[in-house]
Amino acid sequence: MAELEDQIQFAELLSQGVKSLKLHPDYKISRKKSENVSVGQSYVDKIAYQIGVSSNTIKSWIGQMGPKYVPGRIDDGKLFGMIWIIMKSDMDIQWFIRLLETTSLPVLKPALPVWVASCLKKAKMLRKDGSFGAPLDEEIEHVIRRLFHDIPDSKKIALTDHPMTHNLPTRWSGVFIGRRFDLEAIRQWLLSPSPVCLITGWAGMGKTTTALEAAYACVRDSHGDSVRVDADWPIFNCIIWVSADWKGLTFSDFLNTIAYQLGRMEQIDTSINEKRFVVRNALANYSREERVLLVIDSIDTAESEIREFITNLPQGVKVILTSRENLNQTYRDAFREMVTIQLKGLEIAEALDFLSHEVRRHLQTCNSPNKREKIKQLLNISPEIQHQLILATAGNPKAIALSIAYILDDDIPAEQLIQELGKAGYSLLELFEFLFGRTWQRCNEDTRRLWQVLCFFSKPPDEESWATAAGLDVRNFHYAVEQMRAYTLIQPERIEGDLQYLGHQTVVAYGEQHLSENQEFEKEARSRWGRYYVEYLETHLKRKQLNSEYWSYLLGRDLDQMKKEWPNILKVIKWASQTGEKELLIELVTRVSHFLSRVNLPLRIEYGMKAAECANQLENHPLEALFRIDTAGWALMEVNDLDGALQQIETGLKVLEGLTTDHKDVNDLKVWGLALKARLYLKASCLKKAEAILEEIIDTPASPLIQHRVLLVRGDLCFLRRNYEEAIQLYKTANEISKIYGGEKTIEAYFNLGVAYVHCDEFEEAVSSFHNILYDKNKANQIELIYYHYGMAQLLSRKRDHAKALQSIEKAINLIDSWEPTISIRKEVERFSKLIKEL
Hints:
Elements: E1 2-3, H1 7-19, E2 30-34, E3 37-41, H2 43-51, H3 55-61, E4 73-74, H4 76-87, H5 93-101, H6 113-120, E5 125-126, E6 132-133, H7 137-147, H8 180-190, E7 196-200, H9 207-217, E8 238-243, H10 251-261, H11 272-287, E9 292-297, H12 304-310, E10 317-323, H13 328-331, E11 338-342, H14 348-365, H15 369-379, H16 383-392, H17 397-410, H18 414-424, H19 428-442, H20 445-453, H21 463-470, H22 474-486, E12 490-495, E13 498-503, H23 505-516, H24 519-541, H25 560-579, H26 582-599, H27 601-617, H28 621-638, H29 642-657, H30 664-683, H31 687-697, H32 704-720, H33 724-738, H34 747-759, H35 763-773, H36 782-798, H37 802-819, H38 826-838
Parallel strand pairs: 7-10, 7-11, 8-9, 9-10
Antiparallel strand pairs: 1-4, 2-3, 5-6, 12-13
């Protein structure tokens, strides 16, 4: 849902767009006469029909029914459907940007063709075939060409290396008050050679707000009079904002944000190790020509890898950090010079301005006559009482705002609140405990449920995951969210196209404290949270062709949704492992094992072995054997830990010895365990041992999925014995069998098939096989690229193009270094590289 942050302006702009269609041939009013009655259909009716809403809904959106009927949110698909109808006929890109700026949707300025195209693809409207969906790509391209006159052809719509200006979040308040001297100190630092500025202070002091205002000043977009317009604030061509306020921000998320802002979107799907180097180089290259400002909010909660990364930033990149802790000691050795700004309570004059502004803000948004009267009374309290309130809150902006909300909502005189604040204690921790406690009492039960489960998530939750964990339906969820927003507990924000809900660290911590005291609710909520992500994995990973609780999750579809939610999924897995939730851990590992083979092999090994132990304790021996043989054993072999792999495979096979052979899955697993053991012997150059095992199982009945794997191992044996033509037939047969259950993009199968073709001088077939390694050519995975470049190096060498072969093999080695240095193919690649260099 798109939140309308400026409903009046939104209605005015959308009304302009709708009225532009009034005389359009497709929407012009037509009338038919039936006897003596004139039956008409207005242009608004036609527009409404196209996006699947009533004409009254359109009228409410454009303010025709009055300002109070303009909604607070609109479904993204319907909003972009309306925008699409307007923009394919009229209105320019400036109208589009101004309209989106009135909503919570993210806006890129200057607008890029690829961004506008991606927005229009979200439109849901009636298509010619009678279905509701997005416009055709060629239709969108036509509109993009009209909007961006300098685009000669469709190729220009592709993503480029053009960096974004900034990704600064929306301000929480329209006017920035106070901190004039602190901002001046930041300005002086920006003009100095010092690379890092650290802003520290207690919770609620305004560290984030101050850093954000300084960043906006660097793009000439200041609010309030705290930033002098005539001051020499440096302009930055690229400002990158990263918030670690949620402890789930991973190093990968951090690098993804920088990569995206620098126009290196292709790096988002790559491994952490590769991104680490590529992102730093991208920063270095860009900062040689233009200024770069990196702002990291709540660095004290970030992963250690993020902290390490910023100690090695290239010259020309300025960094603002915010932290509750003073990290001078942490970075003293890393930076020769670091400016530290310690935020304290607002000065009396600034605090009085802030208090007055907060009261007037409540007055502007209040519709209740009784409450408006109370607000006016608060405006007229004596300067002495105002001064006492500021002293009682230690000039803390967050505490002042919460105090005002409490006075107005709880009908308590300011003098009484001041007395109670005095009794609460002398530290800010005790102050927030008091204020949040009062807010907690005012919240209804649904709001409290949402507040308590906010701590479950590693990254800000979306509506579905948060509501499910709290056990709320859609209606109650939105009512509770509105109450949390009214009490300034959360802020909705559009992140990567999805609406997510951010809360201050103090808010999350307070909810977690209440959760720990409500064990029955926590147990129920944790159960709902875990089940939600089990079902999420089924939705986004499960194959329909396979009826298996493990093998049906073989990779075979787009993984974008999985990667977006992975930090929260991993938190569920960690929680289940730490708290002994055996059944949940087994369900989760069963579903993510194959996903982890492309994302993180060490995690696959770690949780595969933990899941095996849980299955053993639950006496689910077939599943224990499966986790040991395939989840852990296979992955250990991939990282070249052959001893560890052999131990897990043999333990799994031993578990299977005590099980009945009548069970089909048990027989399948025995065959695969032995075949995997044979594959291990091949890697150890024990070809005779491998052959003996394969002879033992060659006639054993097995499912197509297991047959596929056994044929690959047999192909590997022929390949190592240089029986390339026989190996080709085995690999091709394996790939044909896999089509029975939807096919598999087994990397080594296509790689070895391609190399076998190279040895047979069948180069076209070899190239085709190497291309088949890449599951999605536009989003190639690191391990896929390793095998692809190594295969192409062998092909080029066979063609005696040694220079290009060397380039290709170097790419493979660099990818290995960045992805998983211990991967089993490393030694082979290095030997081949040495061989080429000697030619």
